[in-house]
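Example record used in the benchmark description.
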Amino acid sequence: MLAWSRYPDATSEFPRLDKVNPTPLLYRSGSRLAGAYFSDSGCLLTATLNEDLGPCIIYTAIVASNVGGPDNIAVSNARWDDLIQFPVSVYRMAQDLGLPYETVRRYAAKLLARGLIERSSEGLIARHEGLSEPAIAGMLTEFSGMTVKMHSSLQAMGANLTTQGKIASPAHERRISAMSIHYFLKGVKIATETLRVDPVPAMIHFTIHRANLAHLDPLPGSEVLDSAHVHLDAARKPVSVFAVARNLNLPYETARRHVSRLSKLDLVRRQGEEGFIVPSDLLKTEPFVNCVKDTIQATYDFMEAAFSPRLH
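Model output (structure tokens):
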């Protein structure tokens, strides 16, 4: 079992499974499912908080830091006023998310002005009253529902999960919601480290990749990391900047600027007049193969931790 510091970071790890290679370990199809989870999480956050994606990610990271790691979530009584324990500084947030200090400070100021967070002598904390608002409470319930659905989808794909993907009690549902936020941030962190970009363009990359493959079934054999099982560019459906902006509730100009930067980095490419794709040759490179492995490991660990009997 991992030991957690008093001030856990926003992307605390779930305890790793003893068997790093469960059978079958669903690689590309499973990571595609995880990418959809991360993209849907971004949409849910922006729609609920009525904010741009940047401040929304900061808000979730503050909540994640406030509730601590999985061990703390498991032993709490799962009321939000009990879960919120650990204030976090702007400096620590910037370190955890790999963002410039000034960017995090600016986003935090927006959240403070909205009354979603407050400042204590030790740092920033999510307001208990805000977490109890119907819209945010509904969002947290939606996170737990998405997690149950993912567990079911992985099992349908053949994942040999040892847990049952069922919510045992209202307290368990709140614990799953708290863990879901950690998992979302873990996915964003894996993507930012792979792409070497900030969280917002990483989320845009998720969204483009998902849209490219939405009309395609996973190729046979995608439970293994074989480059032959990556859909070719010609099969990928391009997506427009407008569609990306609408999907993530981003201002068009913000989406255009980030897509332009991703294109300059050759992380996405324009395909005709229809829009952009994530190129297949990029997905065959070592950093992206490792990204898939890390995402699947994080997903399996999350599924086992979220539905562990000790959380019921």
